[in-house]
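CORE FACILITY INTAKE
Project code: CF-77B
Contact: R.S. (postdoc)
Sample description: multi-component assembly, two entities in total
Requested service: structural model of the whole complex
Turnaround: standard
Below are the sequence entries exactly as provided by the requester. Do not edit them.
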Amino acid sequence: MAFLHAATGSHSGPKSELKSKSWTPYLLLAPGLIWLVTFFIFPILSLASTSTMVRPEGAQIGTYVQELRFANYIDAFQANQEQYIRSFVYAAIATLLALAIAYPLAYMIAFKSGKYRNILLVMVVAPFFTSFLLRTVAWTQILGDEGPIVSTLKLLPFVGDSMRLTSTPFAVVSGLTYNFLPFMTLPLYASLERIDPRTLEAAGDLYANGFTTFRKVTVPLSMPGVVAGTLLTFIPAAGDYVNAAILGSPSTKMIGNVIESRFFAVVDYPTAAALSFTLMATILILVTLYIRRSGTDELV
Amino acid sequence: MAGQKVALDTGDLVLNRVSKYYGDFCAVDDLSLTVPDGSFFALLGPSGCGKTTTLRMIAGLEEPTQGTINIGETDITTQKPYRRNVNTVFQNYALFPHLTIFENIAFGLRRRGIKEVKNEVMAALELVELAHLAERKPGQLSGGQQQRIAVARAIVNRPEVLLLDEPLGALDLKLRRQMQIELKRIQMEIGITFIHVTHDQEEAMTMADTIAVMNQGKIEQMGSATELYEAPKTAFVANFLGQCNLIKAKVQSRTGGKAVVSAKGHTFEIPLSRVSTESDSVLLGVRPEKLRLDDSGTNSIKDCIVTDRSFVGTSTQYLLKTPWDLELIAFEQNDEGLHDLHVGDKVSVEWDPEHTFGLDGSQDINAGADLDEEE
């Protein structure tokens, strides 16, 4: 907080300086702090407490008492292992797909778009102008049995008439990839755009051909964007339930769908809370390992 | 102009009738140039004169619209930059921020498949006296250190030609002086051709064996610093290198090894060898430090008026106005022969014919003046 002191103390007298020194940082922190305590810390604590509750014998549905039963976690995990693992697999595939699609796109916008750069950037964020839910519903039309993709594919000789795309893992992963693509593209663009084109020229000057320059200079220098983009895609994708609910079937359920149905359909609050915490903890561990591995901290 | 011959058995760099157009804009206009192997060559000119474009064509970062570029017998005109034995020290160094200093310097060697790089990298680092920084990242170095690393990264590859694109532009004055000496030392030590692009005439004069002054895509004049300064061939060169007094005059006669010219009722003599035009209309030129505040010589102007004086330590600089309202600059050494003149004083100036030169009179008398400081 030293910089805050310096900024506030510079133009006030010694007395008021003392006062502003002690209060200004806290005043600045207050709105965010109050907001987070009310809408994040408090619900988290409440969730944590719910996760170890037990429904007393013969009590009404939705009535739970605190018994600090940590075995809830084991039960919840064992009962939903399949969906749990599936979530991470789907999220990982969607993240890799998004990276494969977004990298060339971001590269093109950063280095080759010329005067169209701003238009292209607006197009990247344009999907945000309509609702996430609506866009996902639109995908059921696109992938539907009578939709353009399926009817085109059916023209091919080796595609059978029974072929369908909705309610398949393909549909869910496609939806995830599509919905989180801008979160991948924008950080990638930001880090590619920051690369000094002269370092690329320098690589060429130092006997690296185009591909080697890309591998040895462009990719390492864009790593902060790759890390940020994959995190911003993977984290929400792992917890997502909208895509699996709208585009999937019972056999493509993700952990988000289980949590949702435990909370709202079955009214099994402890299991839902325990699953939420397990999900959070797993993501946190994966992210920490990932950031350590990629070693980008000194680049950022 | 020099440079038409094609070198055969040397590593001379030869540009033969090279032009570069961007759409309709001509950046480099039919330029021919020979840089002898092992020389320190400067391309000097104001911004936009085409010097950087020329450098980039030699590096392979731009392709000439017309003409050819050779190193020795090899035609490198369309060779990819990563195939030619030319390395560049970029204007803002363009070091790789993600690599250590060691790996930055090893980059070129590794790309050419050399596995044992340690000795060569360390030797390059020692040449620039920064061996102790090998494990740092570029971001941890000062501007001057980064500059030297950029030089080491280029010369470790033993290129046939080293290109330097305004390499000292980002440094402060004191560091720049130091690096000028440093670069000169490195060039002498390794003996490869250096081509140095700069807009700073003092830098070019201090460092280069040969200077080519460029203007609007063409070479105005090429030669040693002394030649360019003492015997400029165009008004642009006269004004761009240092300061110069130019007087519009008419040739009266060309006999006995000297030309007699007249301007506003005064006659002046110029050795014929120093007149670079056949035309009768000439610009008579003389450098400010060659003017003496006296009226005894062959070439003299009486009744000038002092309009400004400034004391600059080693000399006093006077602005004078001739009877026909032309402004002249005169520098006088601050030694025993000092005239202590003040604004409004009347004074005569004179100079030796052998310090006078004659240029073609159809040129803009102010060409190249006030251009030498780039922002």
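Facility notes:
- Chain A has two domains: 1-51, 71-294.
- The first strand of chain A starts at residue 53 and ends at 54.
Invoice: internal transfer
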